[in-house]
């Protein structure tokens, strides 16, 4: 009996040793394959973040050596920099207006494309294209020319009998709306996410609603919208972060003009860092934005339970 127990114990130990060797072998392979990402993440994310955190407490002018000054950059930012508050308010307005409009437009187009036709694939690609090229420098230059005094928009208005020579980008009332319109035009990525979610909603729910006498509008608000709230939440988080970090549109089209009415936060941070050589101050601004985005994301997650449906379909 003891001999059988001893043999079983030896066999179990041998199996354990073989498993550990296999585990070590596979772990090593996994680490080797993940090593390029790990090295890249450390070199291009962790190290720059640590350096920017240090520079945010320094007077650093790129060409010179950083000099530690404590919280002076942060104190100046909140007490002696009106342009900081101006850029913050412009960015908040831009994000809070453009993101909901983009999501509404993306959902509307997704519902239209849900009904399949022979050209549905073409329409999906065509509507997604602005999301790929919309943030490029070329599109920003094109947009700038379209809304110039002698641009396409005024020429179209003149073509229908409206004598328009309005400077869309030269007015504090309309310049920010030109940038918002460009943002809304880039709705393609959100549209595809909505389209995928709409396909997951069981058709039996709509059939049951029709049997009960519900119309299209009622079905949308009672079935479609509640079941889409997780997707809306996902798109809201992604697009809100993108809105607060918008850069190319402002930098190429307006550069914050006129009268700082389109001065985005990231553009002002860039100006401080590279135009005015206040790199330490720009680093401090970057960390303030990181904290703001983190707080907004945290608030959205905390309020998620009040409006996001997490039950099964």
Give a written overview of the molecule.
Pfam families: BPD_transp_1 (PF00528). Keywords: Cell membrane, Membrane, Transmembrane, Transmembrane helix, Transport. It comes from Candidatus Acetatifactor stercoripullorum. One of its GO terms (cellular component) is plasma membrane. It is found in: Cell membrane. The chain is mostly helical and about 325 residues long. The protein is about 75% helix and about 0% strand. It is built from 13 helices and two strands; from the N terminus they run αββαααααααααααα. Strands 1-2 form a two-stranded antiparallel sheet. Strand 1 and strand 2 form a beta hairpin. Helix 12 runs antiparallel to helix 13. It starts with a helix and ends in a 6-residue tail after the last helix. The mean pLDDT is about 85.
Structure summary:
The chain is mainly alpha-helical.
Structural class: mainly alpha
Task: Categorize the overall geometry.
Answer: globular
Radius of gyration: 27 Å
Largest sheet: 2 strands, antiparallel
Q: What is the helix tally?
A: 13
The strand line-up of the biggest sheet is 1-2
Overview features:
75% helix, 13 helices, 1% strand, two-stranded antiparallel sheet, 313 residues, mainly alpha
């Amino acid at each position: 009996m003891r001999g059988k127990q001893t043999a079983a114990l030896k066999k179990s130990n041998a199996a354990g040793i073989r498993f550990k060797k296999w585990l070590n072998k596979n772990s090593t392979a996994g680490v080797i394959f993940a090593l390029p990402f790990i090295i890249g993440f450390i070199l291009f994310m962790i190290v720059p973040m640590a350096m920017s955190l240090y520079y945010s407490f320094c007077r650093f002018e790129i060409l010179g050596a950083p000099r530690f000054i404590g919280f002076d950059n942060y104190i100046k930012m909140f007490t002696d920099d009106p342009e900081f508050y101006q850029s913050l308010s412009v960015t908040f307005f831009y994000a809070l207006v453009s993101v909901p409009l983009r999501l509404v437009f993306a959902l509307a187009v997704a519902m239209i494309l849900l009904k399949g036709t022979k050209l549905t694939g073409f329409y999906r690609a065509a509507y997604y294209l602005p999301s790929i090229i919309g943030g490029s420098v070329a599109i920003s230059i094109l947009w700038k020319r379209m809304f110039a005094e002698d641009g396409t928009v005024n020429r179209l208005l003149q073509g229908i009998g409206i004598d328009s020579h309005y400077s869309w980008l030269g007015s504090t009332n309309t310049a920010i709306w030109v940038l918002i319109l460009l943002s809304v035009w880039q709705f393609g990525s959100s549209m595809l996410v909505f389209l995928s979610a709409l396909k997951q909603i069981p058709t039996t729910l709509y059939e049951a609603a029709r049997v009960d006498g519900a119309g299209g509008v009622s079905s949308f608000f009672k079935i479609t919208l509640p079941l889409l709230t997780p997707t809306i939440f996902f798109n809201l988080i992604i697009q809100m972060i993108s809105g607060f970090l918008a850069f190319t549109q402002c930098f190429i089209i307006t550069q914050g003009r006129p009268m700082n009415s389109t001065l985005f936060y990231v553009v002002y941070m860039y100006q401080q860092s590279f135009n005015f050589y206040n790199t330490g101050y720009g680093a401090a601004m970057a960390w303030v934005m990181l904290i703001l985005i983190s707080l907004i994301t945290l608030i959205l997650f905390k309020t998620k339970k009040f409006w996001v449906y997490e039950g099964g379909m």
